[in-house]
Sequence to fold (234 residues):
Amino acid sequence: MSKPTIVLVHGAFADASGWGGVIRELDTDGYDVIAPPNPLRSLSFDAGTIETLVKSIDGPVVLVGHSYGGAVVTQASAALENVTALVYLAAFGIDVGESCLSAQDGFPSTLLATTNTPTAYDAPGAPGGPDIYIRKDGFRDTFCGDSTADTASVLYATQRPLSAAAYTEPLTAAGWKTIPSWFLVSENDNAIPPKAQEAWAKRMGATTEVIKGSHTAFIAQRVAAANFIKKALG
Fold:
């Protein structure tokens, strides 16, 4: 079997450039890596976008999702025969009928609950409701506390909003029910409760490790993140 193509799906408040360090690590080892844009408009639309891309890839694929990207790869993978593994990095490993919002019920709230801010207008291209950003005064602590201040400044300036519709749309299919999964829990995550991550990983029977890092530990600790992804490559 040929080496799998690794598809990296970013989450909310970010774009694909955040994967730069991980891509360099994987590329050095000879893996084909793609980091497509995640539209962040609605869960069904975003998953359909990734599904279309992965179907066009000849050969096995390992899907990696960060944050909201975890929900996207969960839904997209259910309809994909060439996905051999799912990797979650501080991600939403939700189940059918849950949304990214509802799946956090019963877990301690994070900084994101107080540092997010909605637009005063409806999100362009989304089914309805506003876009959501993270405010500048809370961005680094919420999103990338283990990155430098300079990196955090760039990440804030380039953040892409998530539509409220995407955050509240229920999942309709879960690829992790049949596809082997790996989950890297971020111990110091201030955007998704670490206890929720642990619970989702246990529910899906994922091979799980914990990293002492922020919501975007894969940026500050790219070698560790890349090495974790490699464990799912077979």
